[in-house]
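PROTEIN DESIGN WORKSHEET
SECTION A - STRUCTURE
LENGTH: 311
TOKENS:
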């Protein structure tokens, strides 16, 4: 079994659809190929950006299987688990394990405001049902459920709970986690507009969104920051920020799919009830992307940075 690193850049990949809303696996794999060439470390399939609420278990497993076949020896392949039922979540976990997936990202119980103990017990039962390594997703802004330090305290003895996608939008939470748990949990920033700040404060990686359209720039920021080449990373990050802000928006899926089209590595089809962007909002997003693409920076040779030396 591949050993998941939980360090580096992990795109939350978009799910590609045809015009009639079927899965478009060739387009899906084409996008991931561009990202692998840019130096990503893993992918998260079927997350919020992957339109999780509109794809079936079979579809997400089909996407995962295709990715394993194409890139399973090159990158970590992680499946998102976002369910309202512990029993249903475990069923999907078992199926993911059976096809050879490398790891899981697990959200708190969905469609229900659980108590902290219910959240802790949900994670415990899932973790003890599998040998797969797990990254928890802590996003109280969007999902109204915080995975608190006290919950992490209950989970720290479970060895396969390895990491957290940190999306509280509070940069200080990286330091709180480090002060409380040291290096027990890998921390990956889950908010594009806070990524460099959290990397500087000790985050291990970046579960990124706009990487789907701008893979080289995203990986360059990560590697340069971790290599201590701060000024070079900061210059790219400042250029990137207006585009990264498209990630913290209710229409992040449509924004990022449009960006993929404009950079030539994706398609714009979304699955209902979503609609593609139209009108003034579409014009606004295109304007941001056109300005960014026109001033796209020349990147240093970031791929030559030895990732084994990054801590």
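SECTION B - SEQUENCE
RESIDUE ASSIGNMENT:
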């Amino acid at each position: 079994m591949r050993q998941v690193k939980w360090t580096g850049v992990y795109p939350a990949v978009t799910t590609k659809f045809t015009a009639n809303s079927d899965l478009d696996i060739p387009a899906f794999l084409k996008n991931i190929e561009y990202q692998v060439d840019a130096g990503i470390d893993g992918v998260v399939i079927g997350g919020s950006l992957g339109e999780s609420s509109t794809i079936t278990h079979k579809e997400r497993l089909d996407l995962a299987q295709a990715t394993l076949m194409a890139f399973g020896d090159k990158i970590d392949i992680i499946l998102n688990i976002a369910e309202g039922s512990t029993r249903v979540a475990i069923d999907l976990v078992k199926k993911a394990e059976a096809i050879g997936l490398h790891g899981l990202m697990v959200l708190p119980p969905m469609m229900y405001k659980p108590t902290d103990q219910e959240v802790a017990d949900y994670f415990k039962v899932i973790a003890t049902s599998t040998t797969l390594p797990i990254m928890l997703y802590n996003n109280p802004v969007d999902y109204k459920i915080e995975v608190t330090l006290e919950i992490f305290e209950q989970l720290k003895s479970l060895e396969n709970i390895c990491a957290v996608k940190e999306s509280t939008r509070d940069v200080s939470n990286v330091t709180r986690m480090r002060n409380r748990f040291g290096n027990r949990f890998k921390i990956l920033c889950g908010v594009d507009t806070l990524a460099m700040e959290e990397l500087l404060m000790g985050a291990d990686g970046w579960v990124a969104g706009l990487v789907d359209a701008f893979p080289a720039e995203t990986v360059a920021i990560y590697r340069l920051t971790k290599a201590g080449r701060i000024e070079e990373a900061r210059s790219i990050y400042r250029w990137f920020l207006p585009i990264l802000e498209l990630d913290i928006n209710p229409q992040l899926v449509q924004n990022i799919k449009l960006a993929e089209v404009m950079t030539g590595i994706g398609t714009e089809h979304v699955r209902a009830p979503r609609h593609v962007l139209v009108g003034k909002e579409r014009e606004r997003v295109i304007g941001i992307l056109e300005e960014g693409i026109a001033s796209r920076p020349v990147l240093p040779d970031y791929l030559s940075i030895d990732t084994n030396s990054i801590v």
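SECTION C - NOTES
The two ends are 23 Å apart (CA to CA).
The domain at 8-309 is CATH 3.20.20.70 (TIM Barrel).
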